[in-house]
Amino acid sequence: MSSFTIIKGSLIDETYSAFASWDFSRSKLENLQDLERENTIGAASRNWARDVRKVLNRRFDPEGRDRPLVELAQGDCDRQVWRPLLLWHMTRDEFLLRDFLVNWLFEKYEAGAYRVGTDDVAVYVGSLTKKQGISWSGDWTRTTTERVASGLLRIAADFGLLSGGASKEFAPYHLPDESLLYLLHAVAAEEKNARRVIEASDWHMYFMDSGEVEREILRLHQFHRLGYQAAGSLATLDLPAESPGAYARELVA
């Protein structure tokens, strides 16, 4: 687990710009070198362009797992639709961010917390040396821990989950239908079972429990956006495309 990418932040606009100009005929290394050399993201300084290159290199696999995200940016996808998808793709690699959102922040939300601050998150970050599944890069100083805690809160705010200054409040949040449909495809590609799709912990990143996910699926079923049948513990989910990539291409066709 590295502090670098969390401290640098969500980079939503920079990532969209980088992916919108991505050239699949060139390698990931060549694309990132072009980004830094030609400043295709409009960075304010050479140092910032360098840091963005480093973060994108660590965070994404544009030619593989994250290709649909790139194709959506190239298709001029609405950023309100694209932004939640970026969060899902980021957290395939950003394990600290995923744990923070899925476990710690969602738990606070469910408990009815009104505000969360850097001190609260710093305690959570300090506990991660003992947490299974989180690979630790070394002891962090108190200053680094506080910067990571602040970075996690900033990222959550950038994605519309929190609002406010140093002490942040939970914000009303609802996934756009197109984002929800893409995420259903993405989760289904991993889970392969309708009930497990509904109960997947990834939905916690969007402040959704399994009951809310199922209600949203039923609503989309009523509008003929997908097919859903449930009988007790058994369920079938018929999505409009065969994969996340196929749905992404339909979305910007």
Layout of secondary structure:
Blueprint: H1 4-8, H2 12-20, H3 28-38, H4 46-59, H5 67-74, H6 79-90, H7 95-110, E1 115-116, H8 118-126, H9 142-158, E2 162-164, E3 168-170, H10 177-191, H11 194-198, H12 210-222, E4 227-231, E5 234-238, H13 244-251
Helix pairs in contact: 2-5, 3-4, 5-13, 6-10, 8-9, 10-13
Overview of this structure, please?
This protein is mostly helical and 253 residues long. It has 13 helices and five strands. The strands form two sheets. The chain has a three-stranded antiparallel beta sheet with strand order 1-3-2. Strands 4-5 form a two-stranded antiparallel sheet. A hairpin with a 3-residue loop joins strand 2 and strand 3. The model has no long low-confidence stretch (mean pLDDT 93). The longest helix is centred in the middle third of the chain and has 17 residues. It is 56% helix and 7% strand. Helix 5 packs parallel to helix 13, helix 8 crosses helix 9 and helix 10 packs antiparallel against helix 13.
Envelope shape: globular
Work out the strand percent: 5-15%
- Radius of gyration over all CA atoms, rounded: 19 Å
**Count of alpha and pi helical runs:** 13
Quick structural summary:
The protein has 253 residues and is mainly α. It is built from 13 helices and 5 strands.
